[in-house]
Design a protein that fits this description.
alpha+beta; 4-stranded antiparallel sheet; 3-stranded antiparallel sheet; about 25% helix
Amino acid sequence: MKKAILILTMLVSLFACNETKKQEAVADKQDSTAVKMAPLEITEIEPDTSETVLESDSYESGITNTNEEPEEDITAKDSINFDKYSVDVQEVNKKAPLDFSSYPDAKFFKTRITEAYNEDTSVVFGGHYVGTIFGCGASCIMGFIMDVRDGKIYDLPLGEQNMCFWDIDKAISNPDSRLFISAICKENEDSKVANYIAYVWNEEQKVFESIAEKEFLIKK
């Protein structure tokens, strides 16, 4: 009798143990399935709608004089005697091919020079020169003139050495004159006196020669 009770007890215990393992297995399976099926949480990054302001580049946009008009008591552009160095303006029917060998350093600006020479049909300086002027820094400008007769290229007297901090105007020329005004300056913001950085083109020597103000200013 005792043996039968012992066997029965062992069977009950074994059954209970199997049931517990089955329940644990089911729970483990459910937990595993829940992990695998759980959706990924995606956090979207909102686009930056803050305004971005880009400063304009004078190298690409060209020269824009943003200075205010000079005061009436400042001697400036109207006092320049371009007629003193006048020349006849040549009519441009056909331009000679550009000659970059005439000024080797011009090759660094070949695209800009070529575009200006091909697109501009009007003489802008010295009777037979087409020109191009562009920015080279904060208030710095540089440029070239190209002879429509033979395609030769010449450097304009610009750059930092021919600029000033308080400028009234710069790079002034006439198609029918050899006079070139690199800059009109004043010593400070409140100054009533204008100073000039000026050159005359020597057609024979093919160079710009510095000239004093008294040689081209109109006396009042």
